[in-house]
DNA sequence: GGCTGCCAACTGCTATGGCAGTTGTCCATG
DNA sequence: CATGGACAACTGCCATAGCAGTTGGCAGCC
């Protein structure tokens, strides 16, 4: 991604071409730096020093830190300092389960209101996934997977959902970043699940789409080592 | 929550309500004002004028507005203004479904890690609910209900969950505020559901607890008129 | 040596001022 | 009367400066 490759704990100054507000740019940059591991957990962050590193004032930095705090990515003790939050394996698992639930409702909503154009678009993405799976092109698959979920999120038209899932997917990247190299994902299985989800979307069956999406996310978390294998069979109400 | 029990000669810690940052106080105040209807949807908010109303600087106000924007309660068009977000019935329903899902995972997590003390506490709350239901004391019931869910949220120990559910419950209050007076809730049914949830917690059955909690929230949303009655029977995967 | 108290160097937090866009109004012009 | 353009009054956004706690270390005393 754009996050400049720098020494551990150091942040490169912001480019000034963009039209986004400095606070917004600082927010994204910091979030990226955290999930990429540039700012490791427990690392102390000073509003002032970070401001001079980014080449901006302390104000937008502070604003970004407040938002990151609301995301749970940093914690700040008043008048004492701000620290990158520790996210242990247990918490990563919890966040994964939360994400699975939210992706589920997102898919349910999408199944209800998705227009024909979006369905065609997601079908196209599915085709790319098929090709990527046969070619074992994990990079292309990752990109397609990103678009796949992003499209569903956008289809819901729900801002809260999109924001929350955005934060949670960031954590997901962090988890994958930790399990470095050891991602022996079961590609065909993921493809089949994606197909099933798209089928449910086409059938406009919210409950089915939700169940399949949730199962898909949970299973992928298990194969990624974020979650332990399910202890038992599923439970019925 | 009176003065902490301390040994002779020891001094109890100071209350910390007084020392909250202005930004934090502005955030809470604004959020409260929005969900209470004091600041109706579409109302324009100016950082400066709001600052003088609150008797503080524009900075903390801006900070609070950014956080509210992340919550989805206000939207701000750059260099044009900030307005409190429109939350129509449809969106309210979506947020309700999201909340149901999150309350579900929260309860699942709680079922896994709740200590004996918390279980005893929630059993006590349940007893109060029983009494309140028999006495038709809706005020006491609302209070107990609040504590009931708050206790579960806290039991998860998950900050992200607690923050998200905090925002979503605010929306819930807003929804109830709109359906003024017309809350003919089915009290005994809610009580039975709460009992079932506590039973699942005691059995430490996460899947069961989750399903029951989710169903409970969804049903209560339906009886409150936030969600339409379910169109069909539940679906199996 | 070990403890106490002070001081400088931090920290987050807030106030003030000013910049650059946006909008609405009012007057001059066709 | 209708139209267009400039000006004033907004807006959000950012930089600077200074306040008030917190911390760490170092001198001075027991």
TrEMBL record, chains A, B:
Domain of life: Bacteria
Keyword Kinase belongs to the record: no
Annotated source species: Neoroseomonas lacus
GO MF, one example: DNA binding
Keywords: DNA-binding, Transcription, Transcription regulation
Annotated protein name in UniProt: GntR family transcriptional regulator
Record Pfam families: FCD, GntR
Matches recorded under InterPro entries: GntR_C, TF_FadR/GntR_C, Tscrpt_reg_HTH_GntR, WH-like_DNA-bd_sf, WH_DNA-bd_sf
Domain HTH gntR-type stretches: 20-87
Keyword match Transcription regulation: yes
